[in-house]
Write a structure and sequence with these properties.
The complex is a heterodimer of chains A (1040) and B (476). By secondary structure, chain A is of the alpha+beta class. Chain A is built from 36 helices and 23 strands. In chain B, strands 1, 4, 5, 6, 7, 8, 11, 12 and 15 form a 9-stranded mixed beta sheet that branches. In chain B, β13 and β14 form a beta hairpin. Chain B is built from 15 helices and 17 strands. With 476 residues, chain B is an alpha/beta fold. Classes of the chains: A alpha+beta (1040), B alpha/beta (476).
């Protein structure tokens, strides 16, 4: 076509289009202009201050409308710089530049011209303006609306010259609402009951029944799990299992109880910060910990910790505010008003727990902070034990205050005290090392082992260890203490230099990158630091000396622990004198043994930094806590007898700890009680949750988002463009929760009702339910969205009430059948010119098959289960075996299917489930050959077809016609047409004559569910094929 | 009770007569617009320019092969074996926690014999004799570098252009952009060496992220079901399946008359394509029609399904059928300790078949439009992780330089690009970032990497994020 003709044609077309619109209404800035500016201009003239060109900003109202800058001259496009630059004939000056990827079309330029002509009225981005009520639209058809919301829809339809579709028939509506609200199709009984109910309120009865059904909570939870990126494994690399299903069960319960949505969000964001939080409130905060976590060897802990906090921010943004924040992690957001600084202000809210960037490699310790999930009986038992321990501890302190009753007698019978201290397990002097064997003076049966590369050097009257940082000496069989055992360890050591970190002595498998469990003495910048650890940093006790150890000389270090699991029960002594220390961690609630073999070791640890050029001598290990004098005695062997002579009263502590029967009996009782409590605790399920640090961490802006480039410190804050953080509000997650659920927050309620709308219609009023920002789609019915958002808030955030309205509306009840006309004018059904027609979700597809066949086990909650999965999928990726379940666990609802992030259930992924690595707000709904293969061949669908076939043959009636009708109704919730019935009956007859007995038996034996013996195999096989055919048909795969 | 709408009988007969004309006639509907392929692409205007390669075979060596023992010859390391890595070379750059706390970082020379090969004179160690024979067909990049230092982020970065999960993999981008040229097979197929073990793999590496799930990689596996759920259930013969599908089609046709929804038409087409896949996949995965000389070329192991050699041969068969993106994974290159012994095993498993694939493609005239890429997620350190002894050493992860090779598909053969310092620690010339490699690969496929985008959460995402440049010197 010649150039001229084509452009002429285009102009004509344009004129027609524009003309049509002009006659209807003025150009809508929000709908038509802002999206153009956002897409084509904001990258260089938007919120990002770094990339902003010519100081020009188009995301906020330009400051100078006329006068100095002629950017926009109302009514005069030709005088407006914006229009001039868009239409500039010199390509070098024209905007956007040629190499930009988002040109502005001729049609769009014309829109901008008209908008300027009409006055260039500017508005803030719609989603950041608080919702407002508009008058109810005037509609022509007064009879159709059932709810105010219908008026908004009808007005839109009437404006386009469309009428609503007729109401769908009762069966179709029942199927639609049952799937939308419970994720399950109606049972045949429910179907019949509803069809028989002629009362005007029949529909309301159905909606109420569905909302009260426990399956409602499961359906709603399934949607929230995508947003919460819920999974049963950690996600990175080795992808180890983590039991977080108690949180999932809490979500189901919250929906079933119709917890107000603002509370639902607040508990998850900040349940731990509520006054005297309940267990459920703390459990809800697991939401923030469901991001992926790694334990890959050698990872930099801080790199991943930062990643986790960032994930919390992104999830909060998308799930609660419908806002993308990711961009602002490295630089100012290009489209939305979230600056680089604002991002880290949000980050600061979530950067408030004592956590590690790595979970344990060698143990199954729950990453901290965590919540104990004992059942009631266990809780009661533990409460009794705790009270008993408290009581004994207080008796203990009374005993400490006075000399034991046998003290005087003991003094009398001990005019001199022996030099050797009782309770020694290990006494290594390194003077008598033979080969690699280190003699143990306390127990010759348990010698130490000298590692290759460790030297024995002479020191004064004998040998000492000299360490190179990579090798070690180990002392098997001694020091195997758990946290309830009092003990003492003493050694001489000599550092040659101050280093950031040096492992002196430890009993553990490996260092923190692997989740060290045990006890350890480190030198941190020269300061002795002593810890007992279940999981670092949140489940440990740790103290550190205030003064560093002298360099280049020998010091005697003695560690004493009283078995209390409190940091106050740990003391550090240098050269016999108790050192001033600071408590760095004080929360030890679980065992410190575990993670594989780990003998007491000196000088080095797997992948940790060893004691390079360090000297060690005279190691003593005792299975009791020493007295102050005994500690001194190690350093100065005259100490005890000197005290005996000069101040015998000072020996009371020593007597008590060693021999006072009263004390020893008390101690053994206390230890017994502690052991009993520990046993309970160690077997208590535990879940990761949020527990705010007592002292907030200082969060910093990370340059380019990099963990190792911290910049300026920031305070927790929220983007003011959305809503200013109320003055005086606490700046923590609880304050953030209040800000989020504040009635003035323009996003939260809109995002929430939009999602509820999406449940019913398959698309939200804002199509991009994940993005309400500048680049997201504008609402199809903005006034309606506002109305519903305000209604939701005013109802006390009542989700069920809102769903009841939507499902009860005339809009929802429309038939989904399309006509040429509706398809042409409203192709995507944005105007709701008809009812919704959507493919079943992955979960619905499977649950429907289970439900229709009667296989479904409707137990709610509990650990995730392992239904059928093709063999080898875990094996080929990570060498683990999929522990396929049996019996009932094969037939639970799909939201209970174990979700392994690196190898999710393939059937679910083929049907567009979210992979749960990150927060996902909206799934696709594709139509692919792989889906056909699943429904045709996956054993769980073949089994369901066969079990349904059995029901048909047994309960479905006498004739094949009746039986196929039964099957059809079970899967599609409607009566087949005569044609359909004939087709299926013919298929049955055809199959009946085609099956060999062997083939038939092979088919009907698929799946673990036993076959009903009474049925003829060939009959059953033929009916199985029929059921499978229906299960694959559009009527079963869709909700229309 | 509802009345079946039998008044539509006339229309139905009309529709069914269309159906009776077979699948071809069905294509009149939505199929025609969807293209003739199983997994149609969704982008107009692609390719952006004439492609040099029509397909890619990506031989991913998972774990991080040691460039210093295979391709990047460093006599200085042999000379200074056991001496400390000088701080002037390391320049304070980060190490992993696995060797970062070692009190000593002793340089470790390769314990293998080295020779220059071919006319191009490329260095290849004795570990890879077959690769050594084809160096004149290869383009070595010695100056690859990446940002991640741990496996998961590094391999995710390589395959999706981001260390963060949730992005589409390279094959998905290409399937999305270019679609398929085969009507019976997916555009993007993944082959994993069976029972290999080593660092785990994750299905997100071939996932489609936020792009339509049609573009996720389809795994072709050794065993009864080469594609998941491909095989009919026991007792269901192909004839029975055909009968059933015919009835299903009629059932859906009925539904179409009620609903008037083109999606139903599309669903009918998907079932037909599934049926065709049931024929074509076993056909491609059955190697029994390959003559003995092919197994001489690839090695006897190629007879064992699921081996790397069998997968290389399978890759050639898939390429012959115009599968767009064929992704292999071979685990086991993560040699932190006992490197000399275990790298021999890895080399033996992969060397002959990798070279055979290149030769085989060439003799079939397919190398010129098939891009073959060989490499892993990072390289390995020039110092020993753990103790260095007379005949043993290990190497830790090293993201700062490593070697990959490419062949065919418009890359310049017989060349070596980029260089590293004498210590094999830092790049000295022509660095090639992961994004650069990906940009170059897309370029060879006729795609401008800055223009293959997908909007998600308001932003245009691309495989190369906001980075990447096409390395012109790598192009023939």
């Amino acid at each position: 076509m010649p150039q001229i003709t084509r452009s002429l044609l285009f102009s004509l077309l344009l004129a027609t289009l524009v003309g049509q619109q002009a006659s209807a209404r003025d150009v809508d800035f929000q709908r038509s202009i802002r999206p153009i500016l956002s897409r084509s201009c904001f990258e260089c003239h938007g919120p990002d201050s770094e990339s902003r060109q010519a100081g020009l900003r188009l995301d906020v109202e330009p400051e100078h409308r006329a006068g100095t800058s002629r950017l926009l001259v109302a009514g005069a496009p030709e005088k407006s710089l914006l229009y001039q630059r868009l239409t500039e004939s010199d390509p070098d000056d024209r905007m956007p530049p040629l190499d930009a990827h988002h040109p502005v079309s001729t049609r769009e330029i014309e829109l901008i011209r008209r908008w300027i002509l009409e006055g260039a009225r500017w508005e803030r981005h719609w989603a950041f303006v608080p919702p407002e009520r508009s008058p109810l639209p005037v509609v022509g058809n007064q009879n159709w609306p059932r709810d105010d919301l219908d008026r908004f829809i009808l007005a839109g339809l009437e404006a386009e010259g469309l009428a609503p579709a007729p109401e769908a028939d009762a069966a179709r509506l029942l199927r639609r609402a049952s799937l939308d609200l419970t994720g399950l199709p109606p049972t045949l009984d429910e179907l019949e009951a509803h069809l028989a109910d002629d009362a005007p309120e029949a529909w309301n009865r159905v909606v109420t029944r569905l909302l009260e059904s426990p399956a409602y909570g499961e359906r709603m939870a399934t949607l929230w799990l995508d947003l919460a990126r819920y999974a049963d494994t950690h996600g990175y690399q080795s992808d180890v299992e983590r039991p977080v299903w108690p949180w999932r069960d809490w979500v189901i319960e919250a929906f079933n109880d119709n917890m107000p949505y603002d509370e639902f969000l607040s508990w998850q964001l900040a349940g731990d910060l509520l006054p005297e939080p309940t267990r459920a409130q703390r459990l809800a905060t697991a939401f923030n910990r469901l991001h992926r976590q790694t334990n890959e060897g050698g990872s930099v802990e801080e790199e991943f910790r930062v990643e986790y906090v960032a994930d919390r921010v992104h999830t909060f943004g998308t799930a609660m505010l419908g806002l993308t924040t990711e961009c602002a992690r490295c630089h100012d957001h290009k489209f939305d008003p979230i600056s680089h600084e604002a991002y880290y202000q949000l980050f600061a809210f979530f950067d408030d727990i004592d956590e590690s960037g790595l979970y344990s490699h060698f143990t199954n310790a729950t990453p901290t902070p965590s919540l104990q999930l004992a059942d009631d009986a266990k809780q009661r038992r533990m409460a009794v034990l705790s009270a008993r321990i408290k009581e004994l501890e207080s008796t203990g302190s009374t005993l400490r205050d006075r000399p034991g009753s046998s003290f005087e007698d003991w003094l009398a019978t001990n005019p001199r005290l022996p030099l050797e201290l009782p309770g020694r397990q290990g006494d290594y002097r390194f003077d008598d090392v033979e080969g690699s064997v280190i003699f143990n003076h306390a127990d010759p049966e348990r010698p130490g082992q000298l590692g290759a590369g460790v030297e024995i050097r002479s020191r004064q009257d004998g040998g000492s260890l000299h360490l190179d940082g990579d090798n070690s000496a180990s002392f098997p069989g001694v020091g195997e203490f758990d946290r309830n055992q009092p003990f003492t360890i003493s050694l001489l050591l000599r550092p040659e230099a101050i280093t950031e970190r040096a492992v002196i002595i430890h009993r553990s498998r490996a260092w923190t990158d692997a989740g060290s469990q045990g006890y350890q003495l480190l030198l941190e910048n020269g300061h002795p630091s002593w810890s007992l650890i279940h999981f670092w940093p949140g489940n440990a006790i740790s103290i550190r000396t205030d003064e560093p150890l002298p360099v280049g000389q020998w010091s005697r270090l003695t560690l004493v622990y009283d078995g209390s699991s409190h940091a106050s029960g740990m003391t550090l002594h240098v050269d016999g004198e108790q050192a001033e220390t600071t408590i760095t961690r004080d929360n030890l609630t679980r065992s410190i043994t575990g993670g594989g073999p780990g003998a007491l070791t000196i000088g080095q640890r797997f992948r940790d930094r060893g004691f390079k050029d360090g000297g060690v001598d005279e190691l003593l290990v005792l299975d009791r806590a020493l007295s102050t004098l005994e500690v001194r005695q190690i350093h100065d062997e005259t100490a005890l007898n000197h005290a005996r002579t000069t101040a015998p009263g000072s020996l009371a502590e020593t007597h008590r700890l060693r021999e006072d029967p009263e004390h020893l009996a008390h101690l053994s009782e206390l230890q017994e009680a502690r052991r009993a409590l520990a046993k309970e605790l160690d077997s208590t399920p535990e879940i990761m949750t949020m527990t705010a640090l007592p002292e907030p961490r200082t969060s910093r802006i990370l340059e380019r988002g990099r963990y190792d480039m911290p910049g300026r410190a920031v305070e927790p804050d929220t983007p003011e463009e959305i809503m200013v953080f109320p003055a005086g509000e606490r700046r923590d997650r609880l304050g953030l929760a209040r800000w989020t659920t504040d009635a003035r927050n323009p996003l939260t309620a809109r995002v929430a009702v939009n999602r509820l709308w999406e449940i019913a219609f398959g698309r939200g009023l804002v199509l991009t339910s994940e993005d309400f920002g500048s680049q997201g789609s504008v609402p199809s019915h903005p006034e309606l969205l506002d109305q519903l958002a305000l209604d939701l808030i005013e109802s006390g955030w009542d989700i069920k009430a809102m769903l009841e309205r939507i499902i009860g509306s005339a809009t929802y009840r429309q038939d989904s059948t399309t006509t040429e006309n509706t398809r042409r004018i409203d192709p995507g059904n944005a105007l709701l010119s008809r009812g919704p027609a959507n493919r079943l979700t992955a979960e619905m597809i499977r649950d429907q098959a289970l439900s229709a066949s009667g296989l479904l086990v409707d137990t709610i909650g509990g650990p995730s289960v392992h239904p059928y999965q093709p063999p080898g999928l875990w094996q080929e990726k990570s060498g683990r075996t999929y522990p396929q379940g049996s019996g009932e666990t094969l037939h639970r609802r799909s939201l209970y299917t174990f979700w392994k992030r690196t190898s999710p259930p393939p059937m679910m992924m083929i049907f567009d489930a979210a992979n749960r690595d990150v927060c996902v707000a909206r799934r696709g709904a594709t139509n692919t050959p792989l889906q056909a293969l699943v429904l045709l061949n996956d054993p769980q669908f073949v089994e369901a077809s066969r079990v349904l076939a059995e029901r048909c043959l047994v309960h479905g009636g006498e004739t094949p016609e009746e039986q196929v009708t039964f099957a059809f109704k079970s899967l599609t919730s409607r009566e087949p047409t005569n044609g359909e019935r004939r087709l299926l009956t013919d298929l049955f007859t055809e199959e009946l004559s085609g099956f060999e007995p062997d083939e038939a038996r092979a088919l009907i034996e698929i799946g673990d569910t036993p076959t009903r013996d009474a049925l003829d195999p060939i009959h059953l096989a033929a009916m199985t094929v029929v059921c499978s055919t229906i299960l694959n048909s559009d009527a079963a795969v869709m909700r229309r | 009770m509802m009345r079946p709408p039998d008044d539509l009988d006339v229309t139905r007969r009309h529709f069914l007569s269309r159906l009776s004309m077979g699948v071809g006639a069905m294509a009149l509907g939505s199929l025609a617009s969807a293209g003739r392929s199983v997994f149609p692409g969704s982008i107009d205007q692609l390719p952006h320019f004439a492609p040099r390669a029509r397909r890619v075979i990506y031989l991913f060596q998972s774990g991080g092969p040691s460039q210093l023992d295979l391709f990047d010859y460093k006599p200085l390391l042999e000379k200074r074996n056991g001496e400390e890595l000088p701080d002037s070379v390391r320049k304070g750059q980060r190490l992993t926690g696995m060797s970062g706390n070692q009190s000593s970082l002793p340089l470790a020379g390769a314990q293998f014999k080295w020779k220059r090969h071919g006319e191009s004179g490329a260095w290849v160690s004795e570990l890879l004799p077959h690769t050594a024979e084809i160096v004149d067909k290869l383009c070595f990049v010695r100056s690859m570098h990446t940002e991640a230092i741990n496996h998961d982020p590094a391999i995710t970065f390589f395959q999706t252009g981001s260390q963060i999960a949730g992005r589409p993999s390279m094959g998905s981008w290409i399937s999305y952009g270019l679609g398929s040229e085969n009507s019976n097979l997916p555009a993007y197929i993944v082959l994993v060496t069976k029972d290999k073990g080593g660092q785990p793999l994750y299905s997100r590496l071939w996932g489609s992220g936020f792009i339509d799930s049609r573009h996720q990689g389809v795994q072709l596996r050794a065993g009864r079901d080469p594609v998941l759920y491909l095989t009919n259930p026991e007792g269901v013969s192909p004839e029975r399946r055909r009968r059933m599908l015919d009835r299903l089609r009629s059932l859906d046709a009925e539904q179409y008359l009620r609903e008037n929804d083109p999606e139903i038409d599309a669903r009918i087409a998907q079932y037909e394509m599934a049926y065709r896949m049931q024929m074509s996949v076993p056909d491609v995965s059955d190697l029994s029609d390959e003559p003995d000389e092919v197994f001489d070329l690839y090695g006897e192991e190629a007879r064992t399904p699921g081996t790397y050699a069998a997968n290389c041969l399978m890759a050639r068969r898939l390429a012959e059928r115009d599968v767009r993106f064929i992704q292999l994974y071979h685990q086991g290159w993560d040699q932190h300790g006992s490197l000399p012994a275990s790298i021999r095993v890895q080399a033996r498993e992969t060397d002959q078949a990798s070279a055979a694939l290149v030769r085989d493609l060439e003799r079939r005239g397919m190398l010129e439009d098939t891009l073959v890429v060989w490499g892993g997620e990072f390289g390995r350190t020039n110092y020993s992780q753990g103790a260095l002894t007379a005949n043993d050493y290990g190497r830790d992860h090293h993201p700062r330089c490593f070697t990959m090779w490419m062949a065919g598909g418009g890359v310049r053969p017989g060349t070596t690009y980029g260089a590293t310092d004498d210590y094999g620690y830092n790049i000295t010339e022509n660095p090639v970032h992961v994004h650069d490699l990906n940009a170059t690969m897309l370029h060879l496929l006729g795609i401008d990497h800055e223009r293959l985008t997908h909007q998600h959460q308001g932003r245009d995402f691309r495989l190369t994020d906001v980075h990447g440049r096409v390395i012109g010197d790598l192009l023939a």
